[in-house]
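JOB MANIFEST
job_type = single_chain_structure
chain_count = 1
residues = 930
[input]
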Amino acid sequence: MGSRPTYEELEKRVLELEKSEIKSKQASKDIKSSILFLHTLVDINPFPMWASDREGMVILANRSLCETIQLTDDNIIGQYNVLKDKNLESQGVMPLVRAVFENHESVRFRIPWKARLAGEVEFGTARDMIIDVSMFPIVGDRGELLNVVCQWVDTTDQKRAEDALKQSEDRFRRLSENATDMIYRMSLPDGIYEYVSPASVNIFGYRPQDFYNTPLLIKNIIHPDWHGYFGKEWSNLLKGKVPPSYEYQIVHKDKGVRWVNQRNTLEKDEKGIPIAIVGVVTDITERKKAEEELVRSRTELRILVDTIPDLVWLKDPDGIYLGCNQKFEQFFGAKESTIVGKSDYDFVDKDLADFFRDYDQKVIELNKQSVNEEWLTFSEDGYRGLFETIKTPMRDPSGTLIGVLGIARDITERKKAEDALIQNEQRYKSAQRMGLVGNWEYDLVSETFWGSDQAKRIYGFAPDSDRFTSEEVEKCIPERQRVHQALIDLIEKNKPYNLEFEINPVSGPKTKTIKSIAELIKDDQNTPLKVVGVIQDITSQKESAKERLILEQKLLQAQKMESIGNLAGGIAHDFNNILSSVLGFSELALDEVEKGSSMEDNLQEIYAGGLRAKEVVNQILAFARQSDEEKKPTRVAVIIIEALKLIRPSTPSTIEIRKEIESSSLVIGNATQIHQIMMNLCTNAAHAMQDNGGIMEVTLKDVHFGESINIPGGLEQGKYIELAISDTGCGIELEHIDSIFDPYFTTKETGKGTGMGLAMVRGIVESYGGTILVESIPSVKTKFTIYLPITSNLDNEIISEAETLPKGDEHILFVDDEPPIARMVSRMLESLGYQVTTRTSSVEALELFKEKSDNFQVVITDMTMPHMTGDKFAIELKQIRADIPIILCTGYSNKINADIAQKIGINAFTYKPFSKADLAGCVREVLDNA
């Protein structure tokens, strides 16, 4: 487009209009006036302003715009098209600009305006700005767009100020929110908190919101001892008197009494009236404790310095006393208050004072500690003694010399003792260095031998004996050749002499083990003069080492068994629950199946397999020493005879079995477990002789261990049965003998041994309070010997077990979280005539019992159940109805046993799996005894 039309051109157009339309002359005049007015109005507008045609091309620009972008209107009008401005496009506001042209909408936006992106116009010297833009359309009578007017304001400086203010606010916020000290502002005189930083939680235990909600909350936090002080300070505060800082105690919400430091700044209005207080609060509790500790330490140090018998003093570099202790006061015969500020010349003669002064100067010049001995005479009582004086230059942390610290110790008596010991020092110096146990010397020049009293005692000689010679000593040493050679090597080759050997003392014990250490003494010409040595009786240490090794082996074995036991307990619980279902439903099925059918045979096999699995679990618990199998007086001989009858048919005919039963004594045990012991040991013996045959010998007899008898295996004195099982088989190799009782250890081929048998045997034996020993000669024989304590209690002796099925018609509540077990037990009990209600949740069962406790005559519950275990369930039942009989059963639990169950009021305790007969007998016994 061309440049802006001149007034002459406008006038010419007006004249043309006047010629064409006479009636519009007056209108033309108005238009001319309006255009002139518009130009004037636009030019005097202090804000940059322009107008464009409907295509976006600028047709009018005011003076402020030209000055701002440093161009004339000719460079803008007809040159700049707002719809092609790349700057607006890049800022994402072009849709707003187009809305003005297309939808006739007014818009406003703020953008950073970069001159180089404005379009085809080149702004050589224009600067980049942040502008606030307003655009609005000029619309004709028919709604058509005539022009678009744009005005913008340079907000660069305002934006920078806003950004700077925001950054300042952000910095203050980060500082206050992250500061460990609490920052606050409180308006006066009402005490309303206008700002409290988050550190208030750590300092006082209260959140900022607590302070906002409670004016003068600090009054509630101040320690009661400080209320009077703060009342006075608040009054001064309202008067405009604010101390720069003060310290006081508060009561922290969570941490109790604390110390804080508060620093304040008072804000006043134009009239000088206080309007607010700004402050910072710091927790100084630890500093206060440190100050108190420092005071205490200084007090203790002063007491210590005054208590020690040494003279202690401190002088400045000019020799003026800065302090001293009580002992030093006695030296000068004056109090510290009199001594401080004076010098040596005020208390002693000039010669001694000169000596002290020169000594101090030397220490300062050398800048290191100096030690000297000097004779001093005390003014207080005239005492004179030899003193060892240590003087040290004292400097502060910056290195500036403070003065000289002096300490003097009376060494008069020590010197006398040193003089008396000079003659003996050479002889005992080596012995002191090597332990002073028992020392000896051999003089190579005079060939004389000397030994201390303790050395003589070790060899069995009396301390005053004259027989303690080198010849007599050698007679006591069985390995005299080795010991003598070591002495020669020391003398001739200077080889170290450090030996352990046995001796046969001339009196006392037959043998001892001693340790001997010696060294060679030479003169200035390196000629050997004497051998000096020490000897120590280490017999007890050697024995202790052996005992410790045995104990460590036992501890290791105990730890192994404990680990296996923990595993066994977990397996037993889950497996017994499974077996309960298998055995229970098998037994129910056997009651219903046609007798003599193949189905009955199959069920019998399943039931027998379940019983074998039950025995396996019992074996696992037995060797793990976690079995709670009932133990009663048991006659071992009967079980051994029965076991041998079973073993004979399965043992090869090449193996002869001999038995010698000489005991009919009883032990407290379990018949099944003793039977397992026999089967395991006899099976192992048969296996050892399977290739070449041999003799298996089983003996049983009574033994008594008294005080004079070497009791095996750490047993106590008393009567025991001795069960021995021996074979003439392959034996056990020496390297295996210590491992045979370890679980899973076996020397048998894969598939022929699990390594559980002997571990189980030892677990049973030790649980009975007995022990098991083994002796073996490879390729000759092996013998296992078991000792079990004999009992004189004949009550409840196990003779035979008669199976009966007592019945009843009582109502039973049965609780078990395993639904199959609940169904199985319910059917068993109902077949015995009982009414049964089952629940698989102890919580539900408890709610039922609360409502209908009188409906039940006995409750049977499992031990391990979710939400509430059986023992806790039983306790709850007893609280509702104290006389209700309860039977507790479990697959295995290390938290409960029969004794514990009885203590909490449970009437019977039994392990899963149980047979129908077991269940019938237990229920009937509990009901009959209720």
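[summary]
Residues 429-433, 750-755, 795-803 have pLDDT under 50 and may be disordered.
The radius of gyration is 55 Å.
exit_status = 0
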